[in-house]
Every structure is written in C-alpha cells, then in structure tokens.
Design a protein that fits this description.
Blueprint lengths: L1 H17 L1 E8 L5 E16 L3 E8 L5 E7 L2 E7 L10 E8 L3 E14 L5 E7 L2 E5 L2 E9 L2 E5 L3 E10 L2 E4 L2 E10 L2 E17 L2 E19 L2 E5 L5 E9 L2 E3 L6 E2 L7 E7 L4 E9 L2 E5 L1
Parallel strand pairs: 2-5, 2-6, 2-7, 7-8, 7-9, 8-10, 9-11, 10-12, 11-13, 12-14, 13-15, 14-15, 15-16, 16-17, 16-22, 17-23, 18-22, 19-23
Antiparallel strand pairs: 1-3, 3-6, 4-5, 18-21, 20-21
Amino acid sequence: MKKLVTVILTLMLAAAVHAEEVNRSVDAAADGHIDVSNIAGSVTVNGWNRNVVEVTGTLGRNVEELIVVRDGDKVRIKVKVPRNSGRSIDSDLQINVPKKSSLDVGTVSADIDVSDVGGTQSLHTVSGDVTTEFVGGRLKAESVSGDIEVSGNNADGDVTATTVSGDVTLFRVSGEVSAESVSGDVTVDESSLDRSELETVNGDIQFLANLRKNGRLSIDTVNGDLDIVFKGEVSATFDVETFNGSIRNCFGPKPVRTSKYTPGLELEFTEGGGSARVAISTLNGDVNICKK
C-alpha cells in the first residue's frame, strides 16, 4: 500500500513539474495593442467585450516565466525561456483581449489561432499554421512551414498571406489581397476584390470571386493549374499565357500558339467594357477561365 501511495505521489509531482497552469489578467485599453511572443506550443486569441487581457493555459517545464505587462495602451505577453533551452518549452496560451485590439503575434514552432478581433493583425510563425478571422482593416500573416487560413465577413480590407511550404486559403475576404506560396496551393473564394495578386511556384491556384470595376487581378505560377471563375458581371481585359499547358476559356475567344516551334499558348480578349485588368501566367499547367 505504501508503495502504491508513493507511486501516485511521484506521478502527481512529475505532472506538476512538466506543466504549470497559468491564469493572469491585466486591465487594457478598448482599442489598444497586444504583443504576444511564444516560441513553441500554441497561441489562441479571442476577442471579448471586456477591457481586460486574460491569459490562461500551461507553460513548459523549462520556461522561466510568463510576462504579462501593460505599458500605456500596449500589453505585452511573453513566454520567457532560457538561452539554449532546447526541449520542454512548449507552452499553450489562451488569450482573451478587447475586440477592437490590434495584434502582433510571433512564434517559432507554434500554431496561431485568432477569432473575433477587429484591429490590425500581424501574425508570424516559422513552423506552424495560422488561422484567423478578418473583419476589415489590415492583416498580415506569414509562415515558413505551415498553412494559412483567413475567413472573413466580406468587409473590405488589405490582406497579405505568405507561406513557403503550405497552402493559403482566403474565404470571404474582400478589398485588396496578396497571397503567395512557394510549395502549396492558393485559394480565394467568395470574395469581392479591387486588387488581387496570387502567386505560387509549385501548386495550384483557385480563384472564385468577383472582380470589381477598374480592379486588377494578377495570377502567376511556375508548376500548377489555374482555375479562375468570376462571379457576377465581368468587365475586363484579359492577358493569358502558358508555356506548357492548355487554356480553356468559356467566354468564347480561343488561344493561339505563341510559336510554331514551342508548345506555348496565349490569349488576349476583352469582356464587357474592359474596365478591369487580368493577367494570368503559368509555365507548366492548364488554365481554366469561366464565370458563374
């Protein structure tokens, strides 16, 4: 019996050493700035109707401390780890912030998840996914190795999403968007855009959106298929080319060969009044252009 009690106590102590529960809070401005730094683990940020920043979650075994401080309209949240800390620093933070806050979140090996926050967002991770809601304003999301997913309510704004190895998905994000992946797919769906720049080196691009009057759409890939479906009325001048692939155009005009010695195709035509400009290019891939 004594041995059993000893084992149970040992396990309980080990669990306490490996994970420290935290619950910290500080008063905050209704539209202040929140700066978050967490090297490894996860960061989840949610907007609420209180002028308070609350941080809960668990800290890794080798974490020195959790810093939560306010300086004017800025609140800084940092998981402090020793130099050359190595393993056992994974910390999972759940952060509640005032809904109108702006965010700057930086991680190395951690996912970032943001919801119901209305201010400017700057989200950066090296190895992790970024998932966020967008309700207008400005958003910049970056990952080296991870997917980026942005969903909105079709409020206008300025969104930039970049990843090296991963997919980028923008859903109901309107205004101006820029999305880029080196190795991954790029998707823009159910959006209404003034300007859009979409690029990938190895991956497909799918565009299912409305291009507004006088809008600009640029789509470029090296190895990948392009599926472009316009919603609503289309008024644009098109310049399309592929070096090694087909072009299917349901607007009518047919592509022509760029040279009798190479497989390249090009297509130039105007639909409607031609107020917008569309430039589409792929080196190795098929292009499909249509409307819904």
